[in-house]
């Protein structure tokens, strides 16, 4: 069995805005393939990018 250690390496190297907000200046600083590679690297190592239940507002 392989156990993944959750370390600081699982956080993204740039702010979240640089990956999802096309109106942000940070979004244009990095090309799409680099963004995909950053996210894939973290997901392969066990990062969890799903929102926590406490941060979801119920309408």
Could you walk me through the main structural features you see in this protein, from its secondary elements to its overall organization?
The protein has 59 residues and is mostly helical. The chain has helices spanning 17-20, 32-44. The mean pLDDT is 75.
Please give the count of helices.
2
In percent terms, what proportion of residues is strand? Answer: under 5%
The total beta strand count reads 0
Shape: globular
Fraction in helix? 25-40%
Q: Taking all residues together, what is the mean pLDDT?
A: 75
Determine the N-to-C terminus distance. Answer: 41 Å
Descriptive key words:
59 residues, 0% strand, globular, mainly alpha, single chain
Please specify the SSE layout and strand pairing.
Blueprint: H1 17-20, H2 32-44
Report a brief summary of the structure.
The chain is mainly alpha-helical and 59 residues long. The protein is built from two helices and no strands.
């Amino acid at each position: 069995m392989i156990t993944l250690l959750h370390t600081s390496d699982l956080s993204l190297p740039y702010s979240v805005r640089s990956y999802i907000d096309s109106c942000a200046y940070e979004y244009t600083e990095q090309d799409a393939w680099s963004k995909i590679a950053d996210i894939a690297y973290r997901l392969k190592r066990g990062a969890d990018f799903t929102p926590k239940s406490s941060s979801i507002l119920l309408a």
